[in-house]
Specification:
Elements: E1 4-15, E2 18-29, E3 34-37, H1 44-52, E4 59-64, E5 67-68, H2 74-80, E6 82-84, H3 97-107, H4 123-136, H5 151-164, E7 169-173, H6 181-197, E8 201-205, H7 209-215, E9 218-223, E10 226-231, H8 233-237, H9 240-247, H10 249-252
Parallel strand pairs: 3-8, 3-9, 6-7, 7-8
Antiparallel strand pairs: 1-2, 1-4, 4-5, 9-10
Helix pairs in contact: 3-4, 3-5, 4-5, 5-6
Length: 253
């Protein structure tokens, strides 16, 4: 039986008269690759921002591995094992691929980048960075400056950066945005492989239904801040309310 990673209890958030999260109650389990979907304005980003700590909730509770993190700052959530990526590529363009991943790997060890010069013998750090590079398929680009990567490889690198913080739960916000079909397939293959290894549990915010239904074990559907669907891809496809307010004939097809 999968263990509970995150519990969301009666979570609410409003912006003036707009309710972006309405009494959300969810449980995320370890090892279950989950997608969060919904039309624009559904509250997807608001939910992820509250869970990751960049936006305070108006009310409710967030519990991560049995610990109340509702009011915990971002850096403490990251140290506990909860991380995220963003819609916009967020890498250090003038640093090498290796150093982009080494920086958060040092941070979780309470080290600083100013110590890079003295890290020649830091075999544990180097070993971990090389392992992540192998996992995400960028070993051959370790010495390449991040700005020289393709858009798809930059997105892959961003996943590697997030993995370097040793997350137990990782939110990916539209990880294939702006990619061509070949880049998209590569990223999806990597995410699926990383998920199957069980090291990190992934939750993906996504608009592309092909991605959602080919990748996910569980799909959560939001609409105007409310959860209107939650289950397997088959269950969500057959959910009449989901079909009515969001998916429509796209699901039927």
């Amino acid at each position: 039986m999968a263990s509970t990673l995150l519990q969301i209890e009666n979570l609410n958030k409003s912006f003036g008269r707009v309710q972006a999260a309405v009494n959300i109650n969810l449980t995320l389990e370890e090892g279950v690759l989950t997608s969060v979907i919904g039309p624009n304005g559904a509250g997807k980003s608001t939910l992820i921002n509250m869970l990751s700590g960049s936006l305070p909730a108006d009310s409710g509770r967030i519990v991560f591995q049995g610990m109340d993190i509702t009011n915990m700052p971002i850096h403490r959530r990251v140290r506990l094992g909860l991380s995220r990526s963003f819609q916009v590529v967020n890498v250090f363009p003038e640093m090498t691929v290796f150093d982009n991943i080494q920086l958060p790997a040092l941070a979780v060890r309470n080290r600083s980048r100013r110590l890079f010069g003295s890290l020649a013998n830091e075999t544990a750090v180097h070993r971990e960075v090389n392992e992540i590079l192998e996992l995400i398929g960028l070993s051959a680009e370790a010495g390449t400056t991040a700005s020289a990567l393709s858009h798809g490889d930059e997105r892959v690198l961003e996943v590697g950066i997030a993995m370097a913080a040793r997350p137990k739960l990782l939110f990916l916000d539209e990880p294939t945005a702006g990619m061509n079909p070949l880049e998209r397939e590569r990223v999806l293959k990597n995410i699926r492989r990383l998920s199957e290894q069980g090291r990190t549990t992934f939750v993906i915010v996504e608009h592309d239904m092909d991605i959602v239904f080919s990748l996910s074990q569980r799909v959560i559907v939001l609409h105007y801040g409310e959860v209107i669907g939650d289950g397997t891809t088959a269950e969500v496809k057959s959910n009449s309310r989901v079909r009515e307010v969001y998916l429509g004939e796209e699901v039927a097809a």
